[in-house]
Amino acid sequence: MNIILLGPPGAGKGTQAQRLVEKFGMRQLSTGDMLRAAVKAGTPVGLQAKAVMERGELVSDEIVSALIGEELDAMGPDTGAIFDGYPRTAAQVESLDKLLADRGRTLDHVIELEVDEDALVERICGRFTCANCGKGYHDKFEQPKQPGVCDKCGSTEFKRRPDDNEETVRTRMAEYRAKTAPILPIYDARGIVTRVNGMADIDHVTAAIERTMAG
Ligand code: AMP
Question: Is 160 a catalytic residue?
């Protein structure tokens, strides 16, 4: 099964993708994570992407589609893909169609996480992750059970994304409205979009996604 999680920054795409990975052994393909890894490693792609990401703008379609192609090639043919943060433009929709068709894959569902934009800035600006295992936390909504220690792996190192500040979040949302929201009608026309209330609690959102996948 191949699915897209769609929604503005902070909608919970990454959180839900991680759960599907754990439960169904699917693979999360997050272009944001791939780009952050490239920035950290100082690769040519990373050097090109760094400033764009810090501004909250979109990296070029060619770069992200190439990253997705590489990840798909590294996966077993029977492993399902969860696209998280990709596609984000109409050009990326076209690229993804081709990448999937070339590999004999089909797109089963596009799940749109619907959220109240006013809540997103608070959600995003308080979030942090375990530097070791990537588990997500939030200053206000989900602190580690033992302060300063990751619930999942016991690490005491945490990190925050440099683009999770209010100014950049506003740009990221504007990019979403201008370039990403317009791709929904393309998938609507194919009859594969399900809308899920992304403001519900995390377990409810997961359950709604699982119901969609179960058909
Ligand atoms: P994310 O982790 O999905 O919020 O992405 C973080 C940043 O990476 C975005 O603000 C963009 O600068 C860049 N990025 C991630 N995915 C894409 C994409 N599909 N197309 C263009 N830029 C992207």
Answer: no
